[in-house]
Amino acid sequence: YSDIMIEREILMQKYIHLVQILETEKIAANQLRTQLEDQDTEIERLKAEIVVLNKAKERMLPYQNNQEEEDPDIKKIKKVQSFMRGWLCRRKWKIIVQDYICSPHAESMRKRNQIVFNMVEAETEYVHQLSILVNCFLRPLRMAASSKKPPISHDDVSSIFLNR
């Protein structure tokens, strides 16, 4: 009985810790949501500013030649430049991602997620064991206590399962 009480206390502490983590994650999610909304507003403002600047630029520039009238060598140079810019961007992005994957923050996030998943798994197992306890022991003992010749009384069942 005391072992069960100790295990119950440990599981309750784990549950409280999990609830605290959940609350922290909810707060962080709300903060991120607010940041995203602020960034969306900023993006819309910047888009509007770009449109205004492009219109002003169009008014200031003299007539430009169509791309069809461009020199073929210039087209080839632009293609090569575009390819190189894309390659450099992808390479820089790959380096940024690799640096993050190796960062202490990413490692702590992996550890945190592993702990949370282990806690969820432990809680799932706990609930499964409780359902076995209720279905295989508590209910049959209560039914037996309600029979004509009970092998155990209702008070004994209640004291065994902490229902005082």
UniProtKB/TrEMBL annotation:
Residue stretches in coiled coil: 19-56
UniProt keyword GTP-binding present: no
UniProtKB keywords: Coiled coil
InterPro entries: DBL_dom_sf, DH_dom
SUPFAM superfamilies hit by this protein: DBL homology domain (DH-domain)
Span of domain DH: 111-164
UniProt superkingdom: Eukaryota
Record's protein name: Ras-specific guanine nucleotide-releasing factor 2
Protein species of origin: Goodea atripinnis
Classification of source organism: Eukaryota, Metazoa, Chordata, Craniata, Vertebrata
